[in-house]
Specification:
The protein is an alpha+beta fold and 466 residues long. It has helices at 7-13, 21-41, 43-56, 59-64, 82-87, 95-100, 107-110, 379-383, 460-465; strands spanning 148-155, 160-166, 173-174, 181-182, 187-193, 200-207, 222-231, 236-244, 252-258, 266-271, 281-285, 291-297, 302-307, 320-322, 329-336, 339-345, 356-360, 368-371, 374-375, 389-395, 402-409, 419-430, 446-451. It has one domain: Tachylectin-2, Chain A. It has nine helices and 23 strands. The strands form six sheets. Strands 19-23-22-21-20 form a five-stranded mixed sheet. A hairpin with a 4-residue loop joins β12 (291-297) and β13. Bound molecules: 2-acetamido-2-deoxy-beta-D-glucopyranose (3 copies). One of its GO terms (molecular function) is hydrolase activity, hydrolyzing O-glycosyl compounds.
Amino acid sequence: MSRNLFPFASRFSTGSSSCSMSIVVLSVVGCLLMLHLYSLVSQPYIQNKEIHAGMSSHPLLLKLEAVEEENIKMPRQRRHSPRSAKRKPRHTTTLIDEFLDESSPIRHIFFPDMKTAIDPNKDAGNDSLYYYPGKIWLDTEGNPIQAHGGGVLFDERSRTYYWYGEYKDGPTYHAHKRGAARVDIMGVGCYSSKDLWTWKNEGIVLAAEGKNETHDLHKLNVLERPKVIYNDKTGEYVMWMHIDNANYTKASVGVAVSDSPTGPFYYLYSKRPHGFDSRDMTIFKDDDGVAYIIYSSEDNSDLHIGPLTEDYLDVTSVMKRILVGKHREAPALFKHGGIYYMITSGCTGWAPNKALAHAAKSILGPWNTLGNPCIGGNEVVRFTTFFSQSTYVLPFPRLPGLFIFMADRWNPANLRDSRYVWLPLTVGGTANQRPLEYNFGSPLWSRVAIYWHKRWMLPDIWRKKK
Ligand SMILES: *[C@@H]1O[C@H](CO)[C@@H](O)[C@H](O)[C@H]1NC(C)=O
Ligand SMILES: *[C@@H]1O[C@H](CO)[C@@H](O)[C@H](O)[C@H]1NC(C)=O
Ligand SMILES: *[C@@H]1O[C@H](CO)[C@@H](O)[C@H](O)[C@H]1NC(C)=O
């Protein structure tokens, strides 16, 4: 359980009349002084506050940080009749049930149809460059983008963004009765963009293997969460991904390389990193060029983190367990003001759950859990990470403090129709809530916030700064 940050305040607020006013005032002043002193020694707090102050002066960023409420009403016809309520008194239909129910009358709220698709080919007029989380997003050829569980690489050499993800444009089925919904491996899709809104399909850059049944990429296996980073020393683009069999018992990572961001990638091998099972995973390249792998392990109970070798093609012997026993997956790691941050989800299969933000001074830990970063929408929206699951957090090096939170709104009934939820994520200012685990001596972490918006766009200054 978390400790109270302001033990004095709560004691006085219980309203003891014997307590003289001057003691209260003195204590409050003392408290404030202590906090001030504390903030002075707490480096990340100061750094982020300054950056935040600088950014907040931009009105467009203020707009992104506006809290937008969402009123999703339960469909009337679905309310249980008194009779059925009697039969099943415990069962109440929730918005999450509606979300998971293919035949829900409010399905269009979670999965808007093709008519509302974001289409960069159409003269979108004032809608141009606007993100609509959850709507179908078309590429420049007019096809829905297939880059699920993905990540974005900014290629310095071509000054182009590349979005890699699972190409899932096939039928969804269950391999066996109890198996999870799946789509055969097709490969890793790649899309390129200069503006992060108009995406050109660069094709499948790592393709499934059709015939060889013992190959990791055989279509009946599993390939999830591909991520690509560039190795400055070798000049190679290195892809890491979760490789599994249909029943998720292989629990390995796979590695592929290419000398071009648009592939084709050459598949090297798979392994269990550090000898452990590895399911949801990501990789992160630090400012100093050292790359790390972060993966859910020990049956998803912990996350493991460790540096990759210099060529990024293997893990080293260094590995730390973090968020031990917390059962987190879908890690997305980023850095701001010298501090590492991570967004994770809970483990509930394809169903959405509550995100948590974590922070650490050293990437290998210890990591502190800050709480749910989601803001706006309504309680259910916040509790379900906007009905989606984290996959990547994209920084803007020249706009410190602003990130794009990338998430997947999975559609387990038809996985190829899963949607993308991109929202602004900001780091800065004082935390709005006490960290879940607070230890005296740990920094006063900055606030990590992901803001719900039905419709939003990146600030113009970002494009001008390019
Ligand atoms: C587009 O925006 C401009 C300026 O804000 C406005 O005058 C115009 O009516 C808008 N057009 C549409 C179709 O909404
Ligand atoms: C099938 O894949 C395995 C594992 O990658 C490989 O060792 C083997 O040579 C492949 N067989 C053929 C016929 O390509
Ligand atoms: C999982 O699948 C593999 C082959 O795909 C099989 O060898 C293994 O026995 C299966 N394990 C379980 C627990 O079903």
